[in-house]
Amino acid sequence: MHMQDESREPPNTTELYEILGVGKKATTGEIKKAYHKLALVEHPDKGGDAEKFKKIQAAYEVLKDEEKRSKYDQGGLEGLDGSDMPEGADDIFSALFGGRRRRQQAGPRKGPDVKHPLKVSLEDLYNGKTAKLAVSRDKIVGKPEQCRECNGKGMIVRLRQIGPGMVQQIQQQCSACGATGFNVKKEKERQVLDVVIDRGMKNGEKIKFRGMSDEHPNSEPGDIIFVLQEKEHAVFTRKNNDLLIKKEVTLYEALCGYKFVITHLDGRKIVVTSKPGEIIKPDSGQAEPFIKVINGEGMPKQGSMFNKGRLFIFFRIVFPETNSIGEAEVALLKKALPPAPPTPSFDEVSI
To answer: CB 236: neighbour CB atoms within 10 A?
Structure first.
């Protein structure tokens, strides 16, 4: 009987990248930017094709997640399973990609990642920024050769006599190849990376450059990872997508009204004014402090082009520095302010 060769073709690991119009080494920020650009054009509400938009959504769902993206890069759509997609997305893949998903065997060994801290200002996280950073990595020159000292094992077994007729085996790392099993020649390669900081990114968030770390024999290069470190701001304090500022006002402003200007993180001037008759109550242990909330003036929400958090303004009343008030002013204040509570009756005692 004639047997047909049923050997499988290598998995397609570029399909989703092509849908979004990015390269395989695109950063997460570049993938998000490409998705939002396509969504503005291809969304059905904008007159785009619904099936094409579903395809764009499906590609983005995989490539925006580092773990799913890694599975896809090694085994294509067949490397993904049902748990890799959010609820309700399974039918998208079945309809558009023929349901080509099954768990794939683990890929080749990956080298260690290299992490770099990246200090960023609150302005950078609010407005977004592309930083050009120079890094260097070890690059293999020529073809690695198997180490002759350890025969490619990376370990050497030595014998040590510990007594008459007694020998102990000691396993040690091979110093000739650095326990890699290969003799290689390396040189430093300098790279300038465009690190895209998306609007709304948070402290501790990571930006990965896949396969850009040091090269090691018999393994794939690891990633270069930049870890964002948000610098303290002189005016604004951030909590998730909300911003907070503290504002001092005079007693006059607290009672008679206020108007001041906030310079926002993008340079805009925001005028804040009190409502007619609005009174700022002082912060005390018995009452909540007076807080003004401005919707839509907080941090941009990551993954959204227009939505922002809230801006909270905490007021602190600064009393006049004078030690006394004239009788005329006291009379006017008594006339304008609610009367003091009555004094309880008591018997006078001479001291």
So the answer is: 19
